[in-house]
Amino acid sequence: MAAPYAPGNVIVSAHRSMHGKRTPAFPYPVPVLPEGADQFPGKEANKAVLVAEQPVSTFSTDVDTASYAFVRRMLTENRLPPPDAVRVEEMVNYFPYRYSAPRDPARPFAIGTEVMPSPWTAGNQLLHIAVRGYDVKAAERPSANVVLLVDVSGSMAYPDRLPLLQQAFRLFAQQLRDEDRVAIVTYADGTTVALEPTAGKERGKIVDAIAALKGGGGTAGGAGLQRAYELAERHFDPKAVNRVILATDGDFNLGITDPRQLERFIVDKRKSGIYLSILGVGAGNLNDALMQRLAQSGNGNAAYIDSLLEARKALGEELGSTMFPIANDVKVQVEFNPAQVAAYRLIGYETRMLQKQDFKDDKVDAGDIGAGHTVTAIYEITPAAAAAGLVDPPRYGGNARGKPAAANGDELCFVKVRYKLPGQAASRQIDHPVAAASARRQFEAAPDDQRFAVAVAAFAQRLRGEQQVADMSFADIAALANGARGQDPEGYRAEFVKLVRMAESLDKVGPQAGREPGLLRR
């Protein structure tokens, strides 16, 4: 929500000294914001499930990266992130991976699996599932028809909000092709069309409109969404990718404010073929929960911009994969063989879980994947040989380990990916059996990408305070990641190791604000 913006209610810094005093950081006034008012979707971590009772696990794919960037911001500011801000799948999927790529756009996904020993629970295994989308060549990509919806309320005056977004959008403008089109809608107390749809070749005009944006007023986000979608529908191009990109720091406090009403509005607009992406900025009143809800409802994705480097990654390097979808409503279903697996636990994806019957129901919405995007999912599994240590056998008959069909008894599990090609209503499916004999005997024998993803998953679970990794120290996680860094041209993996070390230090000495020292060891 926007804070009052008046001459008598301003501060000159968003930073505190060690003694709690404000110190000047930038020369112009910004509104006072409440501290610790960020909102995140509160979801308990997935628990282990007995295969004999529920052999099938189903979830929607997720290519969001907002959680990782927000966690990085907290750690670099010497604060441990709130547990609810840490979403394992977004932490893992933040990084680029060199998974095997599909060659045929008609079959747009390649599925790969690795089974390896768990580094945090002796006797358990990890099933790593890698999905990579077809990478459409730049020359073959359709044009982009984009409406930038920018929050210019009073709270956006901070340098890490509207000024940072203006830098980010200038980078975005440099990526535009001549045939692309961009419009800009702003909202504060009301809404304004700051730029009518403009061809990408008129970059100067687009950049000037971005530079002219100024903050002040309330936060009529609902009205802004309505205005942006109206503009997108009026100038809809059936041959282009039509998308609204919402950039904001917080809540909607004017007009439509009910999250359920906003969600229904986005779901209805999704039918028009217009995608929604959300860029979050700032901290203190970030409504991440609402952003996640709207992005998931609008066939879109959510990212968090904490720096110009992150803006470059989200709106520059990854523009192709984010902007150009190759498949909609992408779902994953894994059926475990009870003769091989006693129990499983999906690590993360708590906000993306689906019912078994949702997998083949084409009316059920799911995630969308762009050109060249990768999706990673990790299951922790308990082998069937350890079933006796989980539950007592049934007293009145039955077999806790199940009776698989003889023809498939050597399979550990069966992975299925279901998706729709853009513009199509019927789903297609790709199947991938996983042989029990494919399991690695040593964790170190798995490829670098898979081991690094496991290290990130371990770190995210540790930050969330999950007991499964309680015996794995930050030093162990850093060593795991260091040993799997492989090729790291942009330094993302090296940065990750530094963040693990920072979390280790904060957990020992205590952050300036947030959790108490040693909380992650409880």
Note down, in words, how this protein is organized.
This protein is an alpha+beta fold and 522 residues long. The protein has two domains: 49-137 and 326-521, Gamma-adaptin ear (GAE) domain (Immunoglobulin-like); 142-323, 3-Layer(aba) Sandwich (Rossmann fold), CATH 3.40.50. The protein contains twelve helices and 18 strands. The protein has helices spanning 66-76, 88-92, 162-175, 203-211, 221-234, 259-270, 288-297, 308-317, 319-323, 448-464, 474-482, 492-509, and strands spanning 10-11, 30-31, 49-50, 56-60, 109-117, 125-133, 144-151, 181-187, 191-199, 241-248, 275-280, 301-304, 325-336, 341-346, 367-370, 374-383, 411-420, 428-435. The chain has a six-stranded mixed sheet, with helices on both faces. A five-stranded antiparallel sheet has the order 3-14-16-6-5, covered by helices on one side. Helix 3 (162-175) packs parallel to helix 8 (308-317), helix 6 runs parallel beside helix 7 (288-297) and helix 10 (448-464) runs antiparallel to helix 11 (474-482). The longest helix has 18 residues, at 492-509. The radius of gyration is 24 Å and the shape is globular.
